[in-house]
Amino acid sequence: FITSDKSSTEISLASINLTQDDLKRIAAYKAVEFVQSGMVLGLGTGSTAKHAVDRIGELLRQGKLENIVGIPTSKKTQEQALSLGIPLSDLDSHPVIDLSIDGADEVDPDLNLVKGRGGSLLREKMIEGASKKFVVIVDESKMVKHIGGSRLALPVEIVPFCWRFTAEKLRGLLEGYGCEANLRLGEKGKPFVTDNGNYIVDLVNVEKDMGDLGLVSDAILRLPGVVEHGMFLDMASTVIIAGELGVKIKNK
Ligand code: 5RP
Questions:
Q1: Beta strands in 14-168 (DSSP E)
Q2: 155 and which of 50, 116, 212, 235 could share a cystine (Cβ 3.0–4.6 Å)?
């Protein structure tokens, strides 16, 4: 059943045994209900967004959607979308996007997000920031009281040039919050390289509440060497949360 009030809607899934991946798929499919023919769509990255891209491909194949243009947030999503026959373009040709759908690593009660565990935070922020509507899809494990808390890292994309210098500046900046700054490693212990040729530093053990997130965001962005960080403040229009007990839709 579905219950709804002005700012949220709930759909009950009680008594069905669901895996975390089922929950991700349910959230993703629900988000794709917002998609209409003729839309320019931001296509997110990650295991949840992948379900949304699959679903869009399926609806196009079935002729239930037409004239969609996808703007992928990563090379991986680009490959997936191409394999599904979704027509693609970019922000240069489509500076205004109708709707973006993407996952998140953390969501707070004000719908602020942490993103970037998949390493695509820069393109995600550019594309989702250019969207008239940004729908975030998560399973309930992603809901937190304060983003950037100790459960997960806050990713920061930095230029490779003298990355230790930048990482140390980041650590120093958030020292008061008990922060460590770890270079993200990829295959064979080599630095993980983003689609933009940059590195990622994961800020871990940031304390439960960083206070004014806007101030922290500005301070991080002011550091030379920093390209972007994974806090998405005041960007989500809607968050679709799939949990054991149902689907909840929260609107900004
Ligand atoms: C990639 C992201 C992802 O959307 C985020 O990490 C969530 O991923 P998943 O859906 O696999 O849990 O921000 O940069």
A1: 40-43, 69-72, 97-102, 106-107, 113-114, 131-139, 154-158
A2: 116
